[in-house]
Please model this.
Amino acid sequence: MKTETYKEKSCIAAKYKFLSGFKSSCRRLTPLIIFLAIMLFYGCKSEKETEAIPKTKKVPSVSVQAAQKTDMISYIDITGTIEANIFTNITAPADGIVESLSARENQRVENDKVIAIIDPIDRVALISENQLKLEQIEKALNNTEQGSIERERLTGELEKAKQDLEYAKNMYRTVPVVCPMSGLVTKRFIDKGSRVSVRDNMFTITDMNSLVIKASVNEKFFSAIRQGKKLPLVLYAYPNDTLQGMISLVYPQVDPVTRNIKFDVKILNFNKKLLPGMMTAIKIPVSVKEDAVTVPEHAILTSPQEENFLFVVNSDNVALRRLVEKGISSANKIEVVSGLKEGEQVVVAGQELLKDSMKVKIVN
Model:
């Protein structure tokens, strides 16, 4: 029989100790392993059961409106200014000082009436010179003794200075400013005592019966501007009044810089006060389409590829994406030239989230 060495006995003892410890650890871990296995089993089962439940998709709600045939009128909006066709600017006839003034702003003046008087510069200078000489003689006379020869000499000079002053006043007359037409003073550039030069503006006289709206439009709309044509308009000063105007004049020239055509509009049947410079909004019809298929403007969307489209709902409540071609627009409606027929149900609310062939729910 082979005798075991001490080293071999030590190895056998160590192996026995390790196996005993491992069996003990397994006995302690077994309940935990079983618990984890049970949880994993039921967790997988619950997930499979959840996957087995079918998901319900939410049907989007939309509002629809039938495409209609209507007569469409396309307008352009422009701005005009009220001005007078008959007016005049009165300028100074001479250099001088405004001696008197009888016309004020917002005052009516009559033809051939004097509305101001100008004292010419030459007359003013001559009178001032003689007036100064007269005052100097009077001062010297007051400082001389009664009965002296110097006083007699100064008395003679005083009489001559008075005659010279009177002569200057009579020889150089004041210059009257005569009104050339009847009308309203809409601008006054001078006051009494103002110094003026020849051709300086003094007044603007306006015939208030000749007030019209001055406007212009690009030459591509020339066919829409015809004399006698009536147009809807709104005065900024009277925004609550709906007015009508008539084209009274189309100017026979195109502006070479702006390429615009000027025209005048006469306001019809309006008795409220108008003033030059008032602003007006004018609507000009530039295109007319009869029996045009129309939808609300917001019903049409634009894709990133710049394609215009809308959604049409069929009898199965399915929204179909439809490419369309737009025409003229007016009053929040737009013409659909192609891609849509009269009576088709067009989505007018809720279309932003739709996709082609999507089931929808129609609500009011």
